[in-house]
């Protein structure tokens, strides 16, 4: 039995609360159990210099954790004068994941920045961020569509969502919380589209190498979890 008493293929309760920010063009408070992330989408009618006059837009992301998102207070990265390597890696992952399902030519010369701020962390902050960021991005595009700036169906080609899986206690399990994540023999994150395409896989053995059979079991769990997340995204934006 898992520490959370969940079944091996059982995810934490998932929820999306939209329009939680008064000023952002799109926003979503996503919850994967006790991991809560505020995702906001901001539109700028300009693009980075290297994209000027290209006719293409850009989607990017920034990620951060509030000081008391974890058990002990963390210093704000702004106080140290630089972002940490983990922060940079995660925000690049979020940006890549979103761009995988966006037609940048259809977006036109505009930039959408998704800010993912972790309010409370209990494992899986990057997967929750990616999944909630898609909802915020969708609503930003819907805001633009209402002003005849673009069309959601033209810009957004598919859903994208992410889930963690791992080997804990000798079993493949899905959606690890912090207690499982910190003691798992293998930890993996899967980013997939609604059509089942793979965007990114991050998998690491924490001691004993994992086998092909275990990896296949993780992918099978991930596909099942992503399908559920995509269904919840569809219900949220319907």
Automatic annotation (TrEMBL):
Instruction: Fetch the SUPFAM superfamilies from UniProt.
Output: Ribonuclease PH domain 2-like, Ribosomal protein S5 domain 2-like
Q: What GO terms in the biological process aspect are recorded for it?
A: rRNA 3'-end processing; rRNA catabolic process; tRNA processing
Catalyzed reaction equations: tRNA(n+1) + phosphate = tRNA(n) + a ribonucleoside 5'-diphosphate
One Pfam entry for this protein is RNase_PH_C
Q: Which GO terms describe its molecular function?
A: 3'-5'-RNA exonuclease activity; tRNA binding; tRNA nucleotidyltransferase activity
Q: Where does phosphate bind?
A: 86, 124-126
Q: Which family does it belong to?
A: Belongs to the RNase PH family.
What this protein is reported to do is described as:
Phosphorolytic 3'-5' exoribonuclease that plays an important role in tRNA 3'-end maturation. Removes nucleotide residues following the 3'-CCA terminus of tRNAs; can also add nucleotides to the ends of RNA molecules by using nucleoside diphosphates as substrates, but this may not be physiologically important. Probably plays a role in initiation of 16S rRNA degradation (leading to ribosome degradation) during starvation.
Looking up PANTHER family in the UniProt record yields:
EXOSOME COMPLEX COMPONENT (PTHR11953), EXOSOME COMPLEX COMPONENT RRP41 (PTHR11953:SF0)
Q: What is this protein called?
A: Ribonuclease PH
Tell me which species this is from. Pseudaminobacter soli
């Amino acid at each position: 039995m898992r520490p959370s008493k969940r079944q091996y293929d059982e995810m934490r309760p998932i929820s999306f609360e939209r329009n939680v920010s008064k000023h952002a063009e799109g926003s979503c408070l996503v919850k994967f159990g006790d991991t809560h992330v505020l995702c906001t989408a901001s539109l700028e009618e300009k693009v980075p210099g290297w994209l000027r006059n290209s006719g293409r837009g850009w989607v990017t992301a920034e990620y951060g954790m509030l000081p008391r998102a974890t058990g002990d207070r963390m210093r704000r990265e702004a106080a140290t004068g630089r972002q940490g390597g983990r922060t940079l890696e995660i925000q690049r992952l979020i940006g890549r994941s979103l761009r995988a399902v966006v037609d940048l030519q259809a977006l036109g010369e505009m930039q959408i920045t998704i800010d993912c701020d972790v309010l409370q962390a209990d494992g899986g902050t990057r997967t929750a961020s990616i999944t909630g960021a898609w909802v915020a991005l969708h609503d930003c595009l819907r805001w633009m569509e209402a002003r005849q700036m673009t069309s959601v169906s033209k810009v957004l080609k598919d859903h994208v969502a992410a889930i963690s899986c791992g080997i804990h206690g000798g079993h493949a399990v899905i959606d690890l919380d912090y207690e499982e994540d910190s003691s798992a023999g293998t930890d993996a994150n899967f980013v997939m589209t609604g059509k089942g395409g793979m965007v990114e896989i991050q998998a690491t053995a924490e001691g004993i190498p994992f086998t092909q059979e275990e990896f296949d079991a993780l992918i099978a769990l991930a596909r099942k979890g992503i399908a559920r997340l995509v269904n919840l995204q569809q219900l949220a934006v319907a």
